[in-house]
Amino acid sequence: MVATKAPEDAYTAEPFLPSHGGLPALRRAAADCRGCPLHRDATQTVFGAGNAHARVMLVGEQPGDQEDRQGKPFVGPAGKLLDRALAEAGIDPDDTYVTNAVKHFKFTRSEPRKRRIHKAPTLREMTACGPWLAAELAVVEPELIVVLGATAGKALLGSSFRVTQVRGTVLEEEIHGRPERLVPTVHPSSVLRADDREAAYRGLVSDLKVAARAIQ
């Protein structure tokens, strides 16, 4: 039987979620997700990874080029910088769970076979992918969510979110039906693009220190 294509505003990952099985089952099911058009061009689904009982969950925007190729989140330059900043802030990277609001790499090319250029996901795409993030939160049950950047913040807290207004503060919000504590900060990739990279890095570490104190 040929599946009927849903209208664009009906895109959602919901039908692809397994009813049980924890993170391993979620990861297997996400590999076959067709809940929005982003799967068509991406190499593979990039699901969350890390400690299944982590006290801290870090949520970024979407996989980048290296993550799309390797199938793991935060394995590129931004991920390495994040690990360094976490350790400096007093959070063991091995005791965290890292994931993204969107599980497929969205990109554009100026020409065929040229470098793939990151393109921000739309609110509709983030909403379609939301059931995976909700399921991860329900399984991991972190004490704190670190929100990495504006796109992740919009996915979790709504379109009015502005990272510059609330970064480095502890927020208490209901996320996917669960009361959560969150500390927003910038995405580590923005540090790599900053004119004053050292100042931007120090700002990231400062925000992560707030997160570290929040779980003491």
How would you characterize this protein structure?
Keywords: 4Fe-4S, DNA damage, DNA repair, Hydrolase, Iron, Iron-sulfur, Metal-binding. One of its GO terms (biological process) is DNA repair. InterPro entries: UDG_Type-4/5, Ura-DNA_glyco_family4, Uracil-DNA_glycosylase-like, Uracil-DNA_glycosylase-like_sf. GO terms for molecular function: 4 iron, 4 sulfur cluster binding; deaminated base DNA N-glycosylase activity; metal ion binding. The chain has helices spanning 22-30, 65-70, 77-89, 123-140, 150-157, 163-166, 188-193, 197-214; strands spanning 49-50, 56-60, 96-100, 107-108, 117-118, 144-148, 171-175, 178-185. It has a single domain (17-214), classed as Uracil-DNA glycosylase-like domain (Uracil-DNA Glycosylase, subunit E), CATH 3.40.470.10. The relative contact order is 0.16. The protein has a six-stranded mixed sheet. Strands 4-5 form a two-stranded antiparallel ribbon. The chain is built from eight helices and eight strands; from the N terminus they run H-E-E-H-H-E-E-E-H-E-H-H-E-E-H-H. Helices cover 38% and strands 16% of the residues. It is α/β, with parallel strands linked by helices and 216 residues long.
